Amino acid sequence: MIMRIFQVTTHPGKEAEFARFFHDTAIPLMRATDGIVEVLPGAPRADHPRDFAFVMVWRDLDALKAFVGENYDSPHIAPEEAELVAARRIAHYDLVQA
């Protein structure tokens, strides 16, 4: 399984608008996506009020590529969130079963 960590930092003043998108669109979309085993959404904390994150566990690399394409190392964003986000970070790991 593949663990994908996706983090975004919003533009200043766009936190509430992005939070609506995050809760109303992004979380339901990811939870309904074929190939995702688990979705762990992360909301901002007081010390970093513009930072949001997803930890997603994908069944395998093929499932991830089916959703984002061959260039899976590039953050996949929806057009409606592009103007809200100042920075994006993505990382992938092989999931370790403890």
TrEMBL record:
Superkingdom, natural source: Bacteria
Gene3D superfamilies per UniProt: 3.30.70.100
All copies of domain ABM, residue ranges: 1-69
Pfam family name, one: ABM
InterPro entries reported for this sequence: ABM_dom, Dimeric_a/b-barrel
Protein name per its UniProtKB record: ABM domain-containing protein
